[in-house]
Amino acid sequence: MATYVLVHGSYQGGWIWQPVGQLLTSAGHRVYRPTLEGSAERRRHLRADLSLADYGAELADLLFFEDLQDAILVGTSIGGMVVAQAAEQVPERIRRLIFIDALLPLPGESVPEINSRPPHDLAKHTYGVDPQLIFAEVLTELREWAIARYTPQPIRPTDEPVDLRAFWSRTWQVDVLRCRRSSAPPEAHQRRTAERLGGSYAELDAGHYPMLPHPSEIADYLLLRT
User: Residue 146 to residues 3, 77, 84: CA-CA distances in angstroms?
Assistant: First the structure.
């Protein structure tokens, strides 16, 4: 039995991993789907000084307090940064890191720089987009379910320059899965992640939120890496 920790990205919560999580559980594995502070059911916990370091610390705490060992951490979108931030704190608890259409900045890089967009105004605390657009690939009945659970993304954990020197200095077992229909993060960024970490690289014909329209493909990909 493997232990998977599935980490969400912007505008999401642990809810977005429900279909994949159910498939992994049915295959006999243990699954955790944490929701990060300030998102989804934890949206009322939003605070102005919330940072990527806070995200990483709470994920590392989950692994410690749940006594997780040989965990497979899976991060999508900004969840990739969160996984890296947590991994450098509790490397002894991690078996494998899997990045699905994920961001993984080098020290000093920021998401606006990687995705070629202007930074958001930190004074606003959160940013958002039309959920109809970001969930356009999802089937109609599931799309309405996802839209109802959409929440704006805290800005500071996403936009501030990242310091992951401890992460990049270590050796990890890594897999990178890029979604071809997604323009951000760019292909070059994701290939760089795989190359620098000596990991595998693959692509899926999907948009940036593949865990909803393609749960079976994502679950199969993860199950091959137990």
Answer: 25, 16, 26
pLDDT of the residue at 199: 98
List the domain range (segments joined by +) for residue 218: 3-223
pTM of the model: 0.97
| CATH code, domain with 12 | 3.40.50.1820
Q: Model confidence over 16-61: pLDDT tens digits?
A: 999 999 999 999 999 999 999 999 999 999 999 999 999 999 999 9
Q: Distance of alpha carbon 49 from its chain centroid, rounded?
A: 21
For residue 126, the cross-strand partners are 154
Nearest to 115 by CA among 19, 24, 182: 182
Q: What are phi and psi of 92, to 5 degrees?
A: -70, -15
How many domains are there within the chain? 1
